[in-house]
Amino acid sequence: MLKVKTPTTGRARRELEKRAPKLVEGEKKTLILHSTKTSNVLNTVLTEIYHLKKGNCIKYSRKNENIRPFEAGGETSLEFFSQKTDCNLFVFGSHSKKRPDNLVLGRFYDHHIYDLLEVGVENFKSLQSFSYDKKIAPKMGSKPLIAFVGEGFESVEELKHLKEVLLDLLRGEVVENLNLVGIDHVYVCTVVSQNRVFLSHCALRLKKSGTVVPKMELVEVGPSMDLVVRRHRLPNEGLRKEAMKTVPQKTKKVKNVKGDPILGKTGKIYIPDQKLGDMALPNKAKGVKRERREAKMNKDADGQVLKKQKGEDSK
User: In the chain, how many domains are there?
Assistant: First the structure.
């Protein structure tokens, strides 16, 4: 394993922060590895996966005899390579009489194995076996579309797991906005049976449709293959909860506002004391001022009389 050292410089600390687990993940890197024995078909599959993900993929050509993903102790080398290369996904190829043309797909969390999925490759067709106009060939680094056809991706546990892994493997960089002209290829995954999926890679050809949205035509450019699900291992519940943490949404609290399931959004309104005596009355009558003046005069006269009576009584 790699020797853990405490960073002493700011640059080293920043590098470690980049490799630390994040609540919002960026683009995922893929690690491609070989076993001690592989077939010609499997070597071609791994090479073409590398070309499809070129620029965001690392491929090791040496044979690795210590990697046995589904066996105890056989995952140490994988975790070492993940920590060394800072990869989030891996594709491991092996070939044996019991499991010919075998691919193991998996994901890492914090440089530890998160989940594993083993598939067999059948009916493989390479890029060179397809003939098409090279002008519509997909460009490297472009954002692909991914289509999943079939109810098995929602009902069968193995196929649901395969869908999640293929999405992480093929989706590329996560973006919010897309230019329609920049979409030039699509991956089509079709359910054939309960454990078999047909994967094909097609280019998009834009044609005139008479409207603003052009008509899209699919042209198969390869590779294509059948993926037969053999074994799979889901993450344990504790690791899943830790990996699925999301950023808490902080909402600004509004004073005197509450949410009610029946009434909806309710609030309190505070009104100051109203001084009705000082309010100006609209449409005042003509005699209002005279009546007020007479009332005031009568009040003053009564006050003077009361004062004289008090003065006389004191004498």
Answer: 1
- Lowest mean pLDDT of 11-20, 205-214, 278-287, name the range: 278-287
* Domain coverage including residue 153: 27-237
On whether residue 262 sits in a domain, the answer given is no
Tokens (6 digits) for 120: 């067999």
Q: Domain for residue 13, yes or no?
A: no
**Residue 81 placed within a domain:** yes
pTM value > 0.90: no
Burial of 77 (0-12, 13-18, 19+ CB in 10 A): middle
CATH number at residue 209: 3.40.50.10480
CA angle (223 as vertex; 217, 227 as ends), nearest 5: 110
Contact by Cβ (8 Å): 217, 180: no
How many whole angstroms from its chain centre is CA 30? 18
Give CA separation, 299 vs 79, 263, 276, 304, in Å: 99, 54, 22, 9
For residue 24, pLDDT over 70 is answered with: no
**Sheet strands (E) in 126-170:** 145-149
Q: 88 in a domain, yes or no?
A: yes
CA distance 143 to 233: 29
